[in-house]
Amino acid sequence: MSPRVTTPQQDFFRGIWRENPVLVQLLGLCPALAVTNTVENSLAMGLATFFVLLCSSILVSAFKSWIPKQVRISAYILIIATFVTLADLVLAAVVPGIHKALGAFIALIVVNCMILGRQEAFASKNTIGRSVLDAVGTGIGFIIALVMIGGFREVMGYGTFLNFPVMGSSFEPWIIMILPAGGFFTMGFILLFFAWWEERKVVHVQPRRWIAGVTSEVGGAD
Amino acid sequence: MNELFMILISAMLVNNFTLVLFLGLCPFMGVSGKVSTALRMGGANIFVLIITSMAASFLNAYVLPYAPYLRVISFIVVIASLVQIVETVIKKVSPTLFRELGIFLPLITTNCAILGLAIFQTNRGYDFMEGLFFAVGGGLGLTLALVLMASIREQTEVTDIPAMARGMGLVLILAGSLSLAFMGFAGMFSS
Fold first, then answer.
1. How many domains does chain A have?
2. What digits encode the pLDDT tens for the residues A117-161?
3. Is A211 part of any domain?
4. A161, A191, A198, B52: which could form a disulfide with B169 (CB 3.0–4.6 Å)?
5. A3 in a domain, yes or no?
């Protein structure tokens, strides 16, 4: 396959929305569901992942010509694991409370398929500058997705947003939203909403197709 | 003995790796389309989990006391190389089994359930036997979740569902319901 020509702007914005790692590509689902019961935890997880992704992308794109093809995956994983260890130690020293809440999932950033995916698909083939743009865009997209899920779960599950009460005193918290099942449900509803949105858009853009005739409706040619 | 059995049941049902701890979601979403595939994936997972648990016990006993900051790096390197070795050995010894497991064996390296097992085992300070039972329980739980999900998804294939739900959205809602069902096991050890 010939390499697609993309502009720097596309490199940056692609990861934020159109190819959002969590919401569209469904990569890195484990952390996106496991630690997002509050906005605070989601932000911490997002920032830690962002840091690891950015540093690994810089290093991988800087060393891309020196890494032999056969051992490239192992090399990427080693680079990622190094930065994860750094992030782990820094979080433990600076914000011990959050570090405890995230628990094993900080170490599990190593096997976040989103990070490895960006190294393999982008950083190993492009210059440092473009890789930084790509990593920043993808990282921001990851943070947006996590805060979205975390925000929904915290507002519904505790009635607060970043520890500020937002739902009023008469609100009865939905306990299920902070349980593991709530993570699956929230993500599922977000995906269903996007699917519904896409479907609606298609219908609105081509209204004639539906009215045009019985044949297309029965045949389902498209 | 009772203690070991508790660890097994707890890892399998109460703290199910996939549905309660969110470990190994990628294969859960990816290969839960057919029951036969799910079973094979589960089998490969149990196998690698047991080996990883033994390796992690060894590392915890002999290497990490001297260099605790190497934990994540040493775990991932050991897991990756072990999976590679196991793959080579199986290919040589039993080509049939190798064909059965196919692509799943190398894929498992990047499965967070494997690294998760090693880290949880370390955090909880399990010894060799406890770690082994934890691995078997976790693997069985993972297989159970995969097979349950695959059976439901096989059924949805022939069901008339709205177009917008014909994707991962439905799978996640189903996973949420399964997770809710597994919450019921939480009361098992309260007494």
1. 1
2. 889 888 988 899 999 999 999 999 999 999 999 999 999 898 888
3. no
4. A191
5. no
